[in-house]
Amino acid sequence: MKIPSFFAKILLFGEYGIIENAKGLTIPFDFYKGSLKFDEANFQSKSHKDIVKYAEYLEQNMPEEFDFLSLWGDLKKGMYFDSDIPQGYGVGSSGALVAAVYDRYAVHRIDKNQLNKESISKLKEKFGHMESYFHGRSSGIDPLICYLNIPLLINSKEDIDTISIPKGNGKGAVFLINSGAPGETGPMVQIFFEKLKQEGFRKTLHKEFNKYNNACIDAFVKGKKEPLFQNLKNLSTWALVNLKPMIPAKIISAWENGIKTNDYYLKLCGSGGGGYVLGFTKDFEKAQEMLSDFELETVYRF
Predict the structure, then answer these.
(1) pLDDT band at 1, cuts 50/70/90?
(2) Which domains does the chain have, with CATH numbers?
(3) Which ranges constitute the DSSP H helices of the chain?
């Protein structure tokens, strides 16, 4: 039997905002992937032990949802998650594992080939419950995109739809910058929720972030570069002012320089604090020169 692989993901727009019902746009990232495998020599591996603990959590919290007889039987065979998705980098390492476990052991699995808004919403809710083990609280979006492996437009918490995005191979690019160290989602999310207690922050999030974020999504899916980059500058500037604790310290100077020169704009990839930062540029070769001190990975060309 062919063992399915589950790819990484990139949340292009909507980081943190989707918690407060902002729009989001997420795409698969097939540069990294993971799959459940078996090897009796893996009983002492970290991955195997992690899945054992995860299985205990699922059995306690979602006892009717999974075939635990098969799950525990496979764990006795040395099951582990063979993944090259970097952990703590904002590209869906836990989401891919959640998707893999759901795909193999869910009792009433929702068929990914017969999707509608209702079934996508149910999947998201279920995945949010499953992934909360890793982050304390989860929107369910990461496992959803890892499971479905298609671009998703998040209109609201209850309204998610599949979408096609323009294809291109021009000078422009979306890219990743490696900050050099992983981040921890839990503490970053906690900082965000503390900020939400401040009326001023909530106001600017709902009025300014949502405006720039939604305009970026609209321009991106329509292939309109000028409004995309106008709003990316606003979005990058907003994040620098309001989400600075989430920006990896060694990236701050490069972040500011992008806004100053207009050669590229940076934004958070995932929860921040470390891992990857997401970049957008009209001229990738120029951005590479400007960011020569960093390791860049291309996500999308246009």
Answers:
(1) low
(2) 6-162 (3.30.230), 173-301 (3.30.70.890)
(3) 46-61, 68-75, 93-105, 117-135, 141-148, 185-196, 199-204, 210-222, 225-242, 252-261, 284-290
